[in-house]
């Protein structure tokens, strides 16, 4: 009696060993894909979208690469997911987390082949992750008390983060930019106050930090180009045709003269509105929606600078920065909070005119203007800078810092190795494997830099046998160097997140012993 | 059969279009059904117990789910076979009724079917098997009641409840921090439980998840979270002693449902209309302010102008809050949902001690916490985790734990887990079989064998020798006459489940046995399967 099909026609089912192999293969494939981007000498990837225009992105950011991939393998999807979460939570380490998870699975595959049950591997990994975290925790440096040292820590972290990106040429410059920007925030993680404007042209070195706020808009015709001690009203209101919002209202007239009358009334209404706005005693008016010619003219007459069509983000940021409120009604001028700034002027960056607000009320805000040869370059620079900003702002909150350059991995590996020797039972194999996976990261960094990884990692391991060693891989000179001297640091929070999420993801994939794929939903032909 | 002859000897067809249908009859039909049922059970068998493996399921849209919850696996499996669908139903009904043990019930049914197959081969009529199973299940259920123990707990002594929830959670991926999660679940259930009526309304417990953070960051909030933020970015982010107006009407000019038109033909009309419109907004905000509200929660959107007016009058507001959440807020804060501005009165406002906005990570995600509500019956379990799948799985696990805690409040009898209850029942059923005179004796004995298959699967999944372990435990139970011996899945070193603190609820176990028997009986009674053949 043949067993009938249980599942639907196109659905497939993979069991036991095959399922495990499928997920290992998928996860390792993803790891190998992003592996080469790791470290300061990591390579970039070109991504071409399938959408219209076949847009091209050149990047080195793990999360960006993985986000753009179309993956069918379920295990690979888990890895992409953790990279995305890493991006959302701490902003950096998106490649490392995937590589570590992949290495853990690669080791697990060997163990499974050696007939060790996945559950044993999982419990070993768990113990090892806990041990690794504690080992790292013992070696963290916390310079919270010492502002001077802390700032140099931040600088080091920024440089380390940026060194693996396209900005590495000017990392000194950009690290300074990022640290300055984050220091201005004074401990808040609200990155919204930092605005990044991209303008093609010039070179990356021409990028600069501006302590004010820059709005990518033009000043209306015939209006003052420079205002000192500006009082700003930030608004979100219709300045084209102020429609009557009562439902079902419509204009019905029977003669041309009536049309003219109503038009007049409309104009009158607009004029009144403008009057009311001007009555706030302002000399700058920023609106989210369009401003038509007629009110613009009125504003110009009154000597008020009117800026139209600032987008949502721009408005909110401007309100935040200048300390005003976003207004939509203008009947009570005395209670509306106006924004203030010392100077508004039109500036030129490259060929574009921009409006520059300086001396704003909230000193936390600033703008970073990025210059670069092409859009791709700028996009990548923005991503890199964003990573650096995220890491820095997280570090300001959690001031613990560890060294970089493969140092944390070696420290953890050493502790985990020791634990493996003390643990009886089959788990010790898994713990040992965990330590091997950790060592894989410095190996990959060295490999990507074209160095002899086997030799370097062996040297590194020997160095780390001594207590309190600061050795890591110095990619620039291609040898083992003192990371503290070289000033390569990383945020503890990022490292911890990498460790924990990678272990969690590996565990999740290991626990699977069966994959059931449903029949893909049939696409309707849109031909 | 499909062809009959009338009194003149002419053939006529009873079942039309023979070639388009496949038909299985008699013993063949039963065997086909049994093998289908067994196939489903086999998939779930490896998920049983604390060392059970997970399944990865890819939905038609490509989304991935990783789970070890029987009901979820079966539901997402895209099953085509009719009998397999019955098994899916079986697991689902266990899920609805009890909430936990969804894997166990399917494994049990599979084992019963397997035993039935052997009996069928020996030529025992399916109805006799079904009857035998029925008797056996009755014996087993009675025996369970016999070995069950009552245990006491109260709002102060929650330890036993926590232990039971931990047993449930230990088979899930979240077992790393089962203790905190179990405590959270128990506290949540106790805070909404009606201990006098012994009832728990699980609707009052909302399980929310947000990607990011660690599993350890999961928390219980005595209040409600809403995945929304204030309608205006500059509204206050924290409100003490909030009085909440809960509205289901938009802050927009009214839209009568009957079709109408307002004609504007003179300048005066245009102006009056304009004033009217402004008055509308003003009135709406004023009404909220007049009744003393300090927070407005609205199901619909706000017009820009209204939004600013609210901001202006220092009245924080939240828009686009879903209907379900709105109801929960109303329950928790003791407020009334108000459909019209005119009906707003001070008594209808809800009260909460603290309303605050909290942001997460580097993204701009914000959530609204409403805490210390007047009527703190509604609680929220807020799950954090490494990725979306982890959170979904944690949600399912918490759901199971909540159900278990609820069942215990309804009926505080427990049996011991780790397969000990099944082994004990098996011994009892086996003993009863010998006393039964009829052919059913065989079926009853088969039932006992089937009961053994659950501990066997447990042992197998834990990497133990199944037959050896089972026979050892069984002999120990008989020798010491102690029904608490089970399979030592976690390698703790003792077989006594009482020492290991592994409990399950009595009603859960009973339901498993009853439901599994019922489905198997139904499958056995089918002797003819007619289905349209593949085309």
UniProtKB/TrEMBL annotation, chain A:
Gene3D superfamilies: GroEL, GroEL-like equatorial domain, TCP-1-like chaperonin intermediate domain. SUPFAM superfamilies: GroEL apical domain-like (SSF52029), GroEL equatorial domain-like (SSF48592), GroEL-intermediate domain like (SSF54849). CDD domains: TCP1_beta. Its main location: cytoplasm. Keywords: ATP-binding, Chaperone, Cytoplasm, Nucleotide-binding. It is found in: Cytoplasm. It comes from the Eukaryota. Molecular chaperone; assists the folding of proteins upon ATP hydrolysis. Known to play a role, in vitro, in the folding of actin and tubulin. Belongs to the TCP-1 chaperonin family. This is CCT-beta. It comes from Hibiscus sabdariffa.
UniProtKB/TrEMBL annotation, chain B:
Its main location: cytoplasm. The keyword Chaperone applies. It is found in: Cytoplasm. The keyword ATP-binding applies. Belongs to the TCP-1 chaperonin family. PANTHER family: CHAPERONIN (PTHR11353). This is T-complex protein 1 subunit epsilon. The lineage of its organism: Eukaryota, Viridiplantae, Streptophyta, Embryophyta, Tracheophyta.
